[in-house]
Amino acid sequence: MTGMNWRNIKRSNASGSRITLMLLVLSVTLPALCVVWLLIRTSENEELAYKQALKESEARELALLSGQITLLANARLQAIRQHFDTPESTLSGMLEAGIAEAVTLYCPKPHLPDNSEIPKTRAMSRDLRYLFQTFGSGIAFNHIVDWWKNGSLQNLTQQGYRPLEPAFLLLALEYGNPNHPSYVEVESALMEWINRIHSPMPPGQLVFVLSELQRHRPEREGLQPLLGSSSIAHEWTSTITENLPTLWSGFRIMGDMAVVSLDPDHTVALIHCDSLAKRILDSLPLENKPTGRSIRLIRPDEPSLDLDENTAELGFPLEGWRLELISDADESMLPSNRPVLLYIWVGIWVILISSILVSLVIAMVGKQVNKAAFRNDLVATVSHELKTPIASVRLLVDTLLSQEVPPSPEQVKDYLTLIQNENHRLGTLVERFLTFSRMERNRMAFEAQPTLTREMLEASVQAFRERFTQNDYTLSIDCVNAPLSVFVDRASLLTAIGNLLENAYKYSGPDKRIMLRAFPIPRYCVFEVEDNGPGIPINERKRVFQKFYQPGRKLNSHKGGVGLGLSIVTFVARRHKGKVNLISEQGNGCRFQILIPHEDHPHH
Predict the structure, then answer these.
(1) What does each C-alpha distance from 25 to 38, 363, 461 come to in angstroms?
(2) How far lies 226's CA from each of 77, 92, 173, 222, 267, in Å?
(3) DSSP element (H, E) containing 44
(4) Phi and psi at residue 473, to the nearest 5°
(5) In terms of Cα–Cα distance, which of 380, 366, 427, 428 is closest to 548?
(6) Tell me, what's the pLDDT at 328?
(7) Which of 41, 170, 475, 487 is paired with 241 by a 20 to 30 Å CA distance?
(8) For the segment 555-598, what is each residue's pLDDT rounded down to a tens digit?
(9) How many percent of the chain have pLDDT more than 70?
């Protein structure tokens, strides 16, 4: 069989193996991919259906909630008006109840004062300054109290809408003695003015009166909330009133404030929009609140947080407002994603199981392919190696028989010697194939027994010299430091050493120098064969122990051999619980070592 035919056979085997493996991979992976695709499509459809159902449910829930919140807003406005309509209602009471932030007087166009009141107001102010400068603060305090008690201060206004009575009462508190019997009455009258929600003071005047009262009476409780409420009212009126109509009623949003008209005299209640929304939502019954979602009221000028605009319009009195539902949970934990996660895990397990099955099938097929390739290699190798000695013997015999003149005894001896060598070569090949066959089938019998080390080496050398009778080599033995005996199977170890000697002879140069050694190391007895050949490259040192591998040459090389010698050596070493080492430097020869455990080693 030629080298070209050999390469074609191997190429065709490899190509067939690749095609088989590709078909197996496709037959397993394609169904797995189809299952994963179907699972993904199913999850997408379920997610779309869930989102549609959720959207419809949210729409119904929004409609129900918007109606409830509209009713609650109306109830809140009615509560403000009921509190205002109660005669004994005060600003302090409204603030404590949390009904509104402020109650103030809205006067977009102040009324001009009555001309008859101007001389009276000026005369009273002039008399008060005279009394204070001439007789002191006590007399001035008494006159203010008299004016207040006889009703002279009633209905007096400054600039048409600022009442003068609280201003004079504040002066009385400033001029008077806190221990005076009427001082408490004056302070109570001023507090009544401050707490008015019917015909109250304008917000600017109220802020001034409260600030002065707090300065003169810092120990009095309850002034700070009233001052904060009046500041809110004053700030609102100073920035809003210029843009308001003269007459209006009902409820409207003005800036950040929700304004409730309380009477035709321009008295209004102010509620901050955020506070109004919070109070309305807090009054929503717990059983009506959605689970896992928050409710948010959006003013007309406020943007929505929901990109999907999951909102609903509200009715009166919150016209222009919107109701928004916001999910509190992470979307990855929503029920819609649970089937998706399940399908993803199912797909992953399908792929894993399919991959495992593919791997097992590939391993099994690969094993069968390797066995088939090994059989082909073995048949081809046996055929090739046996063909050469058989052909040589046939040629020599035909040459002897075809001569017309009988050959001389010397010629007959030469031809018979050649036939003997080829016959010996043929027997060696057959024996090696039989050994390899028994090794592969694990049918090789090993009977370990104590064996003399020197006798083992000498027997190996004797067998080698019987085969290689040429005088073109030097073979030396060194076993001075070797143990006296080893516990081995003599026949198999002789075969292994013989294979190493034969390789050393084949791959050495013209001046063949072979050394056979035996020496101990910790735990092992080493049998080493050293030659002076070219050595083995680094990239081939592990491959030389493979079956049928021959470094740097083809099967039809003149050196002969089938590449089984080192694999047999490795097998024998392992059956002895040992190992094989290779020490080689390219250009400096090789040293093959068989390490066999000592006779007293625990393996024995």
Answers:
(1) 20, 12, 54
(2) 22, 7, 19, 7, 17
(3) helix 3-85
(4) -150, 160
(5) 380
(6) 63
(7) 170
(8) 334 455 567 778 888 888 888 889 999 998 878 889 999 999 87
(9) 72
